[in-house]
Amino acid sequence: MKLKRYLCFFASLFILGGCESLEDTYKDYAGEGTIRYLGKCDNLSVTPGWQRLIVTWTNHVDPAIDKIKVSWTLDGVTRDSLLEKGSTECNIRNLENATYEVAVRSVDKDGNCSLPVLDSKRPYTLEHESILSFTRMFNKYFYVKNRLAIVFSEWQSDVETASLNYYSGGARKVVELDSVFVTDNKYYLVPDEIDPGTKVTIDRSGRLSGCSDLIVFNPYELARDYHVYTPEFKKVLREKYGQSEITEAFVNAQTELEIDYDIDSFEDILNFPNLRTLFLGKNRYLAEKDLSENKDASKVTDWDISAFALDVACKINNLNVKHYNDHYFPAGEFSFVEDMPNPTLPGDLSFFSSENWTYSCSNEEYGLGFEVIFNENSTSGWQPTRHSNAYTYEMVVDMQKDQFMNGVLVTQKSSVVSAYRKCIAKMIQIKVSENGETWKDATHVIENTLGNTVGESTLITFPTPLHGRYLKFVVRDQVYLGNYHTVSLGKIRVF
Question: Per-residue pLDDT tens for 40-59?
């Protein structure tokens, strides 16, 4: 036992004797003395400015500090600036659109540096997304002959100054813009004719959030080839005129336009320099017995800009607006609009007899009785029995012989209970085939819009006469307030 205690004692002595102090260990690497680090800076802040970074920090109280070194690195290239002791701010100027790594160090008289404090920031430049997205002061604009119509956006608090600049009669004109002017003149027609070939610009200055610099933005030019169209107007041109892309040639060639169903606004008519007549609701053939209820069936979402566009187009382009029923706005709303009565169907339509036609439906259970809609003598119409799921109905018509067809007339049921009126068929697909196997769309689009008031007729004219024996019509049940409702149709006739 005693032997064991002696062995432990000598082992402890050996271990203690084999160790040296940390100071002795690092002495070989520290030269004559121990390593001493300068006190480093603290509270580093790098704030983006206009083509610059504003760097601030708090200095250490270490009396050995002689200078402050600020460096900035981009793509492995470092630049720096040596500042006097006590400096707490540095402006790094003339920077490009990039993220810089910034370092601040304390420096003693021998050039030894402290450990750095680091941060990375990107200055504001012309290429910065915040600059590019800064308000341009307008939502849209339209050149109408030598006049300019502008739809201003709401005044933004970060705008310092703004002005509209143009030339008229060889003289430079300036319209100063401020919050009062923009609020009072959201829809603004420049009062002067603008000299051809001259630039129209909007000048702006403002401040970005977190940036102390006043930024003078490059003038924004209102280019004359600027054209933007609303989604619903694009749909009109695609369905009615076959324009999947709105070309300049098409726009310049149009002297007439027809708009019949719900639309965002009429603003797009200002893009048509040669438009002379606008028909509103011309092709909605409403049932006379329900006319009073449905006279205003077509709606416009943005009334203010629509009224502005109609006024400008009529004043400058001498546009003639033929307005049917109370679609979009009440009759008598505008002195320059010609109010028209309920349209009547053309009297020269020659309908095919369906006496020997045969039919089939993809949904045999719920499509039962659909063939009544092709019976020219029937007045009952068709609506499947109520069911819990939404179905699609593909109805195929065999006319028994090849025919040249110009179009179809689709009429809604003349009697629909109020609970189902929201579910009257809104769209229909029409396809033609010569053999009953290979089908092609009969119109410009896959689905055609239907007038969906009780008893309303929709005349769908094919772009070109089509040859075929078979027709396919596709309609779907509707969803309303989270519930399925069975679709309804009154009659389909082919001419």
Answer: 999 999 999 999 999 999 99
Query: Are residue 46 and residue 109 in the same domain, yes or no?
Result: yes
Say if residue 403 is in the same domain as residue 462.
yes
Question: What is d(CA 451, CA 426) in angstroms, rounded to the nearest whole number?
Answer: 7
Decide if 300 is inside a domain: yes
Alpha-carbon span 231 to 238, nearest angstrom: 11
**186-199: average pLDDT:** 97
Average pLDDT, the chain: 91
pLDDT at res. 15: 37
Entry field: residues in the chain: 495
Are 234 and 212 within 8 A, CB to CB?
no
Residue 121 is given by DSSP the state: E
DSSP-assigned letters across all residues of 143-175:
EETTEEEEEEPPPPTTEEEEEEEEEETTEEEEE
Residue 205 included in any domain: yes
Contact 451, 337 (CB under 8 A): no
Q: How far is CA 185 from CA 190, 200, 306, in A?
A: 11, 18, 15
Is residue 268 a part of any domain in this protein? Answer: yes
Distances (CA, A) of 205 to 156, 158, 265, 301: 12, 9, 32, 34
The total domain count for the chain is: 5
With the C-alpha atoms ordered 65, 69, 70, 71, is the resulting torsion angle positive or negative?
negative
Instruction: Count H helices and E strands in the chain, helices first.
Output: 8, 28
Rounded to whole angstroms, what are the CA distances from 257 to 84, 235, 264, 266?
A: 74, 13, 16, 11
Q: Does any domain span residue 374? A: yes
Tokens of 416: 């629909």
Residues 151 and 214 in one domain: yes
Residue 165: domain span:
134-221
